[in-house]
Structures are given as structure tokens and as C-alpha cells.
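Hi all, posting the design record for the shared folder.

TITLE: backbone redesign
STEP: 1 of 1
STRUCTURE INPUT:
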């Protein structure tokens, strides 16, 4: 194994002072194929009429493709605009390299002249995965199953098949809890599922003493410390669980799609951009139009067309198909087929407010330590590449309202070592700060550790 590692050319290119060469080092992970296995997908099974067509192979689409193709009588087509996840998707510590890359749709908000002015052009970067696994292949890996109140609201809004109990049953069916400490505690282990495809674990945090301190300090401020946030219905502070195990990301591509991809009744087409849902005169969706490598193709569905293209693309595809607010469609010269004013409305996202705090610990990382983290990862899947680079696993869920039983805010913490060579890359990737803001932060980072508490 060691021989294989040191024959890769990247280590000799290494120069401590330049972030670019560090990026080059990380990209050389691809060269270390002998240590990191990565399979590609099977493609093309030759038919174009299916029982189900699923648009988008993200968090939802990969699960749907697996579950629907369990029924051998159904032929299922899964269409995905992106391709295979790169090796960097596997490595939690490298997630920011995926932002603003070909694996990201790279959406941006419009500058309103008021908010987000510390960000380049006042435009918030809306990262969104464009690859198998969708955003689950690039996200911050935090596994949160929500508060009962969230699902009670679904039920109260008339979705009688989605009661709190039913949602909890589904979560458990999906989960496979891996963490030995959590498994040993019956109050925690009974709260999770054990035989599902979605592995759930905690990170082997390099700075556990540090995150423990943060959690304790929340307690001093009056927020309850929990031994598991899921058990406490996500009210309080504690160590977060992750959609990762043994230092490797577990996207829905890995957990659901890979085990189904060889089924003869499931066809997966990558690099296929769905541009329209075909709808007949009786308002029944009967197929989709797709652009594959510049060629227009049509696929037909005898049962259902399912849009699981994410919160931005699903309504976009509906609108491109003539389903949406009439006036808006007409301004884009799309013939309105069904005037449905709410399509594309009511988008909600969590606003993120970074608060940077400076401190003396954990100190700077030397070149030797940095290289050790890299080799530790390649050989043992540990070190800081084995954990998220965006947030530590200290999490706080709380409400700004008095005596509330469910949270309306959450707080995460990012730790940036003193004089950390990737500080620029990480902060730019995560928050998109403009150069002036970045400069002030990197300047201070040469002298101090940073701890960005994010709400
Ligand atoms: C940077 C980032 C960090 C995040 N961190 C966390 C976290 O730590 N914890 C957490 O719980 N959530 C997190 N999230 C949110 C979470 O990842 C998403 O809510 C979830 O993945 C959405 O699932 P989805 O199936 O709706 O869409 P996605 O997973 O985004 O899947 C949509 C898929 O559809 C494809 N697609 C889109 N348009 C088309 C088209 N026209 N034709 C064909 N295919 C198309 C896309 O390429 C994509 O693969 C994060 C998200 C981002 C972007
Ligand atoms: C942490 O490391 C131990 C020992 O190497 C390993 O058994 C365990 O699975 C790891 N846990 C996670 C969450 O990766
Ligand atoms: C919150 O709870 C405390 C203790 O029960 C009570 O005294 C107080 O009035 C409550 N506040 C609100 C806003 O309900």
C-alpha cells in the first residue's frame, strides 16, 4: 500500500506555501486509485418506453429508483443531468472542492443591494449537486431527522399518510446505525434503524476536545446538552450524526442506487438534461424530452413521470412544460398549458449568518502534521479529511421564542486552524466572501485560530 501511495506524482509537487499546489495534491487523490476504489455506472439497456421515469438522481431520485425497481414487473428509467461522482465526493474533508465545479449547478441569487453584501457581487451562491447522488454527493453530511412538529404540520395540512409515526417508521427503515457507542446505549439505539441502506455514524473528530468544549459552553448559556439530538427531538446541543461512515461519504448514490444499478429493469442515463414533461390533452404526463450530448430524445412513461430534480429544477421543468403562473411563462415565451400560479413560489431556504470568533487553540498545523493527515486518510480513513471541512459535528438546535418545544434556529461551528493554508479556499467555497472580507479574515488567521459559529 505504501509503495502505491508514494509512486503517485502529487507529493513531489507539494509546496506548503501555495494553496494551488495543495489543491493539486488533493486532485492527485484520483491518482491514488489503488487505495480508493470507485466504480462507474452501467448504462444503456436499449428501450425507450418505461413504466416509471424518474427525473433527477439526487437524494430522492436514487431512493425512488431503488424502491420502484424492486418490483421486477416494472421498467424504470432514471435520468440525471450530471455524471459519476468524482473521488473528492467520497472524502468529507474535500467537499468545498466540489463547490463551483462541474458538479455544481452554480446558481446565484440576484443582488438586492441590501443583504449579503460581504459576498462577491452581493450574490449568494446556491450550491446544488449535479451528479449521481445529487446534493447528497456534495453536501455537509449532517444527518438530521427533524422535530416531530415538522411532520405534525404535514399531517395537519391534510397529508394523512404522513403522520409523525409513519415518518419515524420510514426514517428507521432507511437507517443503519453504525456507531458503536450509540449502539451500546439502548435509549439511542432504539431510536434508529439498524438494517436500512443509509449508514449513519459519527465522525472520528480530530478535535473532539474542542467540540466538547463548545457543547459545554452552550450548556452554560442555558441550552440543554443531549447525548443524542435525535433522542431529544432536535432541541438542544450535542454531537451530530453524519451520512458518512469510516471517513467516507455515504450519499444516496452509494446507499441506494449502487445496489440497484445492475437490475435489468432499471436503466440509468447520465448527462441527460430533461427539458420538458410531455402532457396529453387529458392532463396526463406520458413522457419527457431530454437533451443528451446535444441530441434531443424522447422517453415515454406508461405509469408515471416523477420529478425529483430538486427544489429549483423540479418547478423549473414544470414551467418549461407549460405548468406554472401564466404571466411568468408568457414573459419567457412558454405556452401556458395549465395556469398554476403557485409553481415556483414559496421557496424557503435557511439563511446563514457567519460569526467569526478568534482564539488561541487548536494552534497551527505543521507541514508534517498536514501530510500525516493525508496519509492517515489514505491508509486508515482518519484525520481531518475524514470529517466535514464545512462544519464540525458540534450542533445546537434552539428556538428564539421562549418555552418553545421545537427549534427555529440551528448553530454550527467551523474550526479553522491558525495560518491554515486552505483558509481562503474553504471560506470562499463555503461562504463566497468577497476579496476584501476574505483578506481581513485570512490576515487575522495568520495570527489566530478562527471559529465561525454559524446560525
Ligand atoms: C452545499 C450543501 C450543503 C448541504 N448540507 C446539508 C447537510 O449537511 N445536511 C442535510 O440534511 N442537508 C444538507 N443539504 C441539503 C440536502 O443535500 C438537500 O436538501 C437534498 O440533497 C435535496 O434532495 P433532492 O433529491 O430534492 O435534490 P438533489 O439531491 O439536489 O437532486 C436533484 C438531482 O436532479 C438533477 N437534475 C436537476 N435538474 C435536472 C434536469 N433538468 N434533468 C435531469 N436531471 C436534473 C440534479 O443534477 C441532481 O442530481 C446541503 C445542500 C447543499 C447544496
Ligand atoms: C473511528 O475509528 C475507529 C477505530 O479506527 C473505527 O472502528 C470506527 O468505525 C471509526 N468511526 C467512524 C465514525 O468513522
Ligand atoms: C415560560 O415558562 C415559564 C416557566 O414555566 C413561565 O414562567 C413563563 O411565563 C413562560 N413564558 C412564556 C412566554 O410562556
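Okay, here is what came back for every position:
SEQUENCE:
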Amino acid at each position: 500500500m505504501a509503495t502505491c501511495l508514494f509512486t503517485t506524482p502529487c507529493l513531489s509537487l507539494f509546496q506548503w506555501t501555495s494553496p494551488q499546489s495543495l489543491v493539486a495534491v488533493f486532485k492527485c487523490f484520483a491518482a491514488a486509485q489503488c487505495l480508493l476504489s470507485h466504480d462507474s455506472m452501467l448504462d444503456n439497456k436499449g428501450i425507450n418506453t418505461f413504466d416509471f421515469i424518474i427525473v433527477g438522481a439526487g437524494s430522492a431520485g436514487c431512493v425512488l429508483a431503488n424502491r420502484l425497481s424492486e418490483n421486477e414487473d416494472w421498467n424504470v428509467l432514471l435520468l440525471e443531468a450530471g455524471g459519476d461522482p468524482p473521488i473528492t465526493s467520497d472524502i468529507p474533508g474535500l467537499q468545498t472542492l466540489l463547490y463551483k465545479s462541474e458538479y455544481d449547478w452554480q446558481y446565484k441569487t440576484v443582488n438586492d443591494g441590501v443583504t449579503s453584501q460581504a459576498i462577491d457581487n452581493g450574490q449568494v451562491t446556491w450550491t446544488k449537486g449535479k451528479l449521481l447522488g445529487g446534493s447528497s454527493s456534495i453536501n455537509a453530511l449532517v444527518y438530521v431527522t427533524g422535530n416531530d412538529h415538522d411532520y405534525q404540520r404535514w399531517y395537519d395540512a391534510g397529508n394523512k399518510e404522513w403522520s409523525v409515526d409513519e415518518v419515524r417508521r420510514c426514517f428507521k427503515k432507511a437507517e443503519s446505525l453504525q456507531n458503536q457507542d450509540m449502539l451500546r446505549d439502548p435509549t439511542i439505539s432504539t431510536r434508529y434503524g439498524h438494517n436500512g441502506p443509509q449508514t449513519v455514524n459519527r465522525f472520528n473528530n480530530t478535535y473532539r476536545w474542542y467540540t466538547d468544549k463548545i457543547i459545554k459552553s452552550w450548556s452554560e448559556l442555558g441550552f440543554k446538552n443531549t447525548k443524542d439530538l435525535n433522542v431529544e427531538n432536535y432541541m438542544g446541543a450535542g454531537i451530530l450524526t453524519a451520512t458518512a461512515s469510516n471517513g467516507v461519504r455515504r450519499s444516496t448514490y452509494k446507499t441506494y442506487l449502487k445496489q440497484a444499478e445492475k437490475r435489468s429493469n432499471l436503466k440509468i442515463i447520465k448527462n441527460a438534461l430533461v427539458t420538458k414533461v410531455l402532457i396529453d390533452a387529458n392532463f396526463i404526463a406520458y413522457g419527457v424530452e431530454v437533451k443528451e450530448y446535444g441530441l434531443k430524445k424522447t422517453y415515454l412513461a406508461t405509469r408515471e413521470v416523477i420529478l425529483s430534480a430538486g427544489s429549483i429544477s423540479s418547478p423549473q421543468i414544470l414551467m418549461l412544460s407549460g405548468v406554472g403562473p401564466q404571466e411568468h411563462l408568457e414573459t419567457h415565451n412558454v405556452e401556458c398549458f395549465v395556469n398554476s400560479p403557485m409553481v415556483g413560489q414559496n421557496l424557503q431556504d435557511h439563511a446563514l449568518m457567519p460569526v467569526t470568533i478568534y482564539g488561541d487553540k487548536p494552534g497551527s498545523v505543521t507541514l508534517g502534521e498536514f501530510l500525516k493527515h493525508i496519509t492517515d486518510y489514505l491508509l486508515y480513513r482518519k484525520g481531518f479529511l475524514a470529517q466535514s471541512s464545512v462544519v464540525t459535528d458540534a450542533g445546537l438546535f434552539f428556538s428564539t421564542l421562549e418555552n418553545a418545544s421545537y427549534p427555529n434556529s440551528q448553530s454550527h461551528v467551523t474550526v479553522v486552524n491558525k495560518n491554515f493554508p486552505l483558509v481562503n479556499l474553504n471560506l470562499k467555497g463555503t461562504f463566497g466572501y468577497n476579496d476584501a472580507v476574505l483578506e481581513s479574515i485570512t490576515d487575522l488567521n495568520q495570527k489566530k485560530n478562527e471559529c465561525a459559529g454559524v446560525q
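COMMENT: The first strand starts at residue 49 and ends at 55.
Let me know if anyone wants the other runs.
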